[in-house]
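Input set for joint prediction.
Command: fold jointly, output tokens.
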Amino acid sequence: MVLATMLKSGVSLEFYVILATILFTIGVLGVLIRKNAIIILMCVELMLNAVNLLMVAFSTYHGTGDAQVFVFFIMVVAAAEATVGLSILVLLYRNRKTVDVGMFNKLKG
Amino acid sequence: MLALIILFLTALVTLFVGFAKKPLLTLSLSVLGLLGTAAALICQWYHPSDFLSSYEGVNMDGFAILFSLVAIIFTILIIFSGFEQFKSRLDHTADYIGLLIFSLFGAIVMVSFQDMFMFFLGLEILSIPIYVMAGARKDDPLSSESSLKYFITGAFATGILLFGIAWLYGATGTFKIYEIQQFFMEAEQISSLAYVGLLFILSAFLFKIGAAPFHFWSPDVYDGAPAPVTGFMAAVVKLGAFGAFIKLFTIAFSELYDFWMPALTFLAILTMFVGNLSAIRQVRFKRLLAYSSIAHVGYSLITMVVLTNNSALNLWYYLFSYGFATIALITVQMIVNDREDRIEAFKGLGRANPFVGFVAVVALLALAGVPPLMGFFGKFLIFADAISQNPALIAVALLNSGIGIFYYLRTVIVILQKPGVDNEIEQSEFKTTPLQLIVLGICVLAMLFGGGLLMVH
Amino acid sequence: MLRSANFVGLLYLNLMSDVQDYIPIVLQSLVVLAFVVGTLVFAPKLGPKLSSAKKDANWECGIEADGNARFPISVRYFVIAILFVLFDVEVIFFYPYAVNFQALQLEGLMAVLIFVGFFLTGFIYVLKKGALEWEK
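tokens >
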């Protein structure tokens, strides 16, 4: 059914929105469920990429270019964030010899 | 805009001056730059049409200038009070100060933005240096752990915020906040996309300001981070986030007030209770401050629930008073310098060092909202503004203030007690530096006489 | 800051396309899938099965395998990798500039020069901080 619609009208906005939402949800679930800090970092990147996809799709839908520039900024900021995140992970690994977030429970109360 | 340029160059110069390994030179140059920024902002206040004053994305209006000036004052105080700690690692002194200034830059962008580009960039410039700074004590596992926790929650919140912005853009087709407002005013039927976007943006903000139920990271992060960074997070980051929050919601989402007001009412109540009730059973000082800050976020949210013409100014004044008290307490915490950061370690502070003890007591009472301190006027303004519209909410807030007084007074009593006789708790030496004394002096003067600002206001 | 509207004028993507445009992709996917699955399924069946201790051992450039593959790498590699990620992604801003090079004229050139200036400042900072010194 879905495939038939798709074949008739080309790829319309809804499909991009649905795909982006699914990707975003996978990212959110990954951040919440996974224990390995590096995988959490990757899931955050997945969330940001879902946003990028959504931005580009909406940008085309509205016929303005703003959102595509926004995507550039998101990409650059994501890279900066990943850099900082990885450095923090290295630092933590040196101190604790693990990247399992379940182990980072010294701060409590 | 000129102020932002000066600030940015200050941060760069600070970083490069650091190679000379002369902490005092770094300190004086950076503070000079911050004062220059403040001067530029004040000039802008009197000559708003300055050719460098605005460009598309950033507009230094009165609101932005007031918030920025306070953020600059707080940053200077924190750099002063933390200087002793920064100086202990000579090759990183300038980095610490430079990162704090970059973060301040983000805070100023966040209160002066005109479109989502600048808002998002401001948020990131505010957050990323603080992720790094939270882990500044490199050999301390607690500090790195705090850094990672802050990073993960922060990055997660950023993702959620961006998703919200994308939906909002889908609904309105623009990123400029005044155009979004215009769109909502003229739209006959508001698309449900906009509501989805609004909810995501709201959740991200709650993450950033540390409101319940998204507060869980803040006690851990406050606890593990180095003390000056904790102070910075409580004072400046909160100021920037709240400034952006009220700006975005009163301009872009003003037409959707009926939609987000009930949610925010509920969250304000929840946040106050969570903060105050959890604060009661804390034994570590920075954790106490964290929960107290959550409670204060609850009070601050009241200004947004009852939107009046004074809301922004009330919020500004409240955060102003809260910041002074927190910075004073953080400075006292650095002076006490207990390794495990127990509240018990404050025992005997009042006798060993009367001035520091006095400031600590004043700051705690100011947080509790005891007249005639500045904290009282802050609470008074908010409650007086809201009481006619939402008396039930104010009743809850007053009840919470009561709970708050309990644990603040308990800490005051610890400070005034005689030094402990048991050998289990080693006595701290309460060493102070001149810079810390200056900070304490400024804070105590502000807290005692800050009520006078109301005359101008 | 450059004005965003003309900035991406040429980057405009056309999302609406015809079904025919996708047929080559579908065909290629099918061929790829068939090849991979085919080799995986048929290769073991067609060939003779011989096994000996020497044949089953890991082969590493003809040299005897030594130690674990997951040994600690110097953290210097890591610093450089991180810096690479950071500086590499910033190049993204040159792309729209390159596309609209003529339209943006002098204003655009100034903006890009300022951008590159800050970029270089960052690089000089990294150099002076000693992050790229291999021997220390």
